[in-house]
Amino acid sequence: MKSLLHLTVKEIKTGALKTILPELYELKKVYETGSWHNHQQVFEHILRVFSYLKKYSRNNLLLWAGLLHDIGKKDSIANHVLIGARKAEKILARWKFSPKERDYIVTIVKLHGKTTDLNQVENLRRRYPEIFNDLMIFGLADTQGSHLKQNNPKDYQYRVNFYLSHLSSTLPIGSLDDTTFHL
Questions:
Q1: I want to staple 163 with a disulfide (CB 3.0 to 4.6 A). Which of 83, 93, 140, 142 is the partner?
Q2: Does residue 112 contact residue 81 with C-beta atoms inside 8 Å?
Q3: HEC profile for 47-92?
Q4: DSSP state of 8
Q5: pTM confidence score
Q6: What is the dihedral of CA 76, 120, 132, 93, to 10 degrees?
Q7: How many CB atoms lie within 10 A of CB 126?
């Protein structure tokens, strides 16, 4: 099974991918605490990100990146991006994704940390113009899938507005309805 377009968060939560992606379910035991996560289960964060990605995009490969973006956190929170990219490559090869598909997904996984560093955005636009919009959608979904809204509402709203300013012409009409937020 390569397509995630038909799967719901509830189906994934109840084990729909357990046999093909056991690494995802191992993250139920991993919690993260910080400005973006209040003792948040990494598995739950991934599902929230996946849910937002499904709302904003029908790109199956971007959905796979959503499920795999924090796969390295079982081994290390600090180094999860590089560890996760290596793990993602192995998982995708195991499921016989093409080299082009693997490259796209692993690139999103490698770069997802830079999508939340707003100082990196212009660099991402220059270096990755072909996937820039997907990176901005990912940054928006990763932000919304965190606890930043509760922990720092002003920073959360600033970031959401930042992503929306880059995406307003590319996201489906109506998909942004619940992103409005007033202080």
A1: 140
A2: yes
A3: HHHHHHHHHHCCCHHHHHHHHHCCHHHHCCCCCHHHHHHHHHHHHH
A4: -
A5: 0.90
A6: -20
A7: 9
The predicted-structure confidence for 130-142, as pLDDT tens digits, reads as follows 999 999 999 999 9
Residue 158 corresponds to which tokens in the numbers above? 């600033």
Close Cβ partners of 129 (under 8 Å, ≥ 6 residues apart): none
CA distances from 113 to 17, 37, 69, 125, 174 (A): 25, 15, 9, 15, 27
Number of H helices and number of E strands within the chain? 10, 2
Taking CA atoms, 63 is separated from 40, 55, 56, in Å, by 21, 10, 10
- Give the residue among 55, 68, 41 at the shortest CA–CA distance from 137: 55
Query: How far, in Å, CA of 122 to CA of 125, rounded?
Result: 5
Q: How far apart are CA 142 and CA 165, in angstroms?
A: 16
Q: What mean pLDDT do residues 49-70 have?
A: 96
